[in-house]
Design brief:
Helix content is about 35%, strand content about 15%. The chain is α+β, with helices and mostly antiparallel strands. A three-stranded antiparallel sheet has the order 1-3-2. Helix 1 crosses helix 2. It comes from Streptomyces albiaxialis.
């Protein structure tokens, strides 16, 4: 987290992720994402959201070459 981080509320995080607000609330409850409590309000730093997305991004695999069933033709 940097000093210039923007702090997002649960609804803003849900909108960025394309989910309902229930999902970020569950991430907070399960302590799966960094958050800040400001009084009774919960805020998630943009950098923490970016880290979460980066950590859960699945890269595509390269397809394997098709195996020849009978070997090469003469």
């Amino acid at each position: 987290m940097t000093g210039r981080d923007r702090y997002l509320n649960v609804d803003q995080v849900a909108e960025l992720l394309g989910t309902t607000s229930r999902f970020p609330r569950r991430l907070i409850a399960e302590r799966r994402i960094t958050f800040v409590k400001v009084g009774r309000h919960v805020r998630i730093p943009e950098s923490a959201l970016a880290e979460y997305i980066e950590a859960h991004t699945v890269q595509p695999v390269r397809p394997r070459r098709a195996r020849m069933r009978y070997g090469r033709a003469a």
